[in-house]
Amino acid sequence: MGKWKHVIAVTAMLAVCMVLVILGRQLETNATGANETKGSLVIVGGALSPDNEEVYNSFLSLGMDYRNKTKDKLKIGILPTASATPIDSASSYKDDFVRYGVSEENIDILPIAVSDDPSTEEDESKWNDGAYNQDLADKVKQYDAIWFVGGNQLDYTNTLINNGEDTPVLASIRQIYQDGAVLGGSSAGAAIMSDPMIGAGTSSGALNEGVTYEDNYDDADDNRVFLTQGLGFFEGGTVDQHFVKRGRFGRLIVGAWDAGNEMGYGIDENSAMVVHNDDQSIEVVGESGLVIVDLSNAKKTTDFPTAMKDVNISYIEKGDRYFWESKTYQITEDKPLIEQPYYPESTTNTGIFGEDALKRVLTYDLVDSGSNEAIGLAYELTGDKKGEGFKLVFSETDQTKGYWGKINGEESYAAINVSLDVTPMEVKLKIDKVNEKKMEKF
After folding, report:
1. For 73, which DSSP code?
2. pLDDT one-digit tens code per residue, 169-193
3. Residue 413 and residue 394 in one domain
4. I need a labelling partner for 187 at 20 to 30 A (CA). Which of 194, 252, 298, 440 fits?
């Protein structure tokens, strides 16, 4: 080998060794978790009651853990951005935090808004560029907790993101979250946690017509799922809110599928899914529960109305945890396994997208009944004697488990690993002529 060839070979070998050393250090850093997010999320499904001590204290306790502070020393920033009455909405949360032990002087309402609050002399709509204020961004780094109020979730993305890039304030929020702060929000403040986020739509609209990426928030005739950019603090899947109360699991299934997320999470009103990044778990606190949808083995038609098969759906409530890496559940000891179902065979639920219908079907009609299958229907009439809609079949498998117990005197359920199939259907009405004639005699 010539002299220069030998030099080149040695140099190349050294370069390769350096690359391997650098990669080894990067792998070591990742293995030790140095780049992992240390913060937590308190994602509330809307309609949070000021008396919901469990949710408020969960948020404040995680804030205290960040810098080992006592509750009265916590520093909290409230973003009123999504509200049509920003000061009034933010002040209400501020009063709640004070009532639960935070010092009033340590709570700030951040001047970022798009609507004028008529209850104040100031025009808060002039705060629409507040997220670019570097002094405010620097101040955010001092907070232990950030709270996002409800309203229109699009107002958050429109003010905190500019052409796909974080504004200074959002960058600071991400930094403290990465370092260990807690972020929380209700309703619109919950929707923004995932990316993409759900901006509008109904379950029937999603199953009938699919997804749109155009803003249909104010279009009553367009009920497709509107997917748009969110803030993406929660990376485990698509989040939806007001979930069981408003029967939104149809839109979550379609929206998560289109977004390419195999997991969907629907948190109900006056309840929170508390995301613990340290052990990769989601804890449920509050009055109602959390629906978890796993689409990893699901199948879906490309045409509409939608047909789906092998959707895995679970429902858990207060005290229960879900570990997203292992896809396992930890059900509180207060709810033992249901070994002898209480209710007789189920009946067909004719309003499956109605208020609390999903919870009833998964619990009373399935895991706590003598049936191994429960049926829900959702339809609307398109004429005097016909209609169209969907048949949803919830089935037990060898992985399905049900739990029931009482916590503080109130019953609580969990239904784990239920299989769901969705089928479009046509409805035909048959008029009972005999009963019609009887009615004519009155």
Report:
1. G
2. 999 999 999 999 999 999 999 999 9
3. yes
4. 298
